[in-house]
Write a structure and sequence with these properties.
By secondary structure, this protein is mainly alpha-helical. It is elongated. Helix content is 75%, strand content 0%. It contains seven helices and no strands.
Length: 143
C-alpha cells in the first residue's frame, strides 16, 4: 500500500458513492460527460485527486498494478489524465456557467431598469437642479 491508511480509506469510501469504474470516471472527465459525472461528483473528485507528492510516488511505482489497493489504482488512473485538476475545475465551471450567466443577466437587467427609472425621473432631475442652484448660490457669495 502506497498511501497512508486514512487517505486510502477516505478515497475508497468516497469512490463507493460514484458507482463507476476508474475507466468510466476517466472517460467522463476527458469527454466532459455531465450525464455520467454530476456537479456533486466533480466536487467530490476535487478532494480525491492526487497531490503532487502522490503523483511523484505513483509515477515512480514500477510494481504490479494488480497488487495496489482500490485507492492507489484510482489515483494512478487520475494521474494519467493530463492536467486532471484543471480539467475537473473547468468541467465544474462548464456546469455552473449557465446558472451564473442567468443570475448575472437578471442583475444587469435590474440595474439597467433602475438606471432608466432614475434617468427618466422628473423629481430626481428637480432635486439635482435645486442642488446645483444651491451650490452655485453658495459659491457666488464667496467670490
Amino acid at each position: 500500500q502506497l498511501l497512508d491508511l486514512k487517505r486510502a480509506n477516505n478515497i475508497a469510501i468516497t469512490l463507493s458513492r460514484f458507482k463507476l469504474s476508474n475507466a468510466e470516471i476517466k472517460q467522463a472527465i476527458l469527454k466532459l460527460d455531465s450525464a455520467t459525472l454530476t456537479f456533486d461528483h466533480l466536487q467530490m473528485l476535487l478532494t480525491l485527486l492526487p497531490t503532487p507528492d502522490e503523483m511523484k510516488m505513483l509515477k515512480a511505482y514500477k510494481g504490479d498494478q494488480d497488487k495496489l489497493g482500490v485507492s492507489e489504482r484510482f489515483l494512478l488512473t487520475m494521474a494519467r489524465i493530463p492536467k486532471v485538476e484543471a480539467r475537473v475545475q473547468g468541467f465544474i465551471f462548464k456546469l455552473e456557467f449557465n446558472s451564473r450567466k442567468d443570475d448575472l443577466k437578471d442583475k444587469v437587467t435590474l440595474m439597467a431598469s433602475t438606471a432608466k427609472k432614475v434617468m427618466d425621473s422628473t423629481k430626481f432631475k428637480g432635486i439635482l437642479e435645486i442642488t446645483l442652484a444651491l451650490g452655485n448660490f453658495m459659491n457666488s457669495g464667496h467670490s
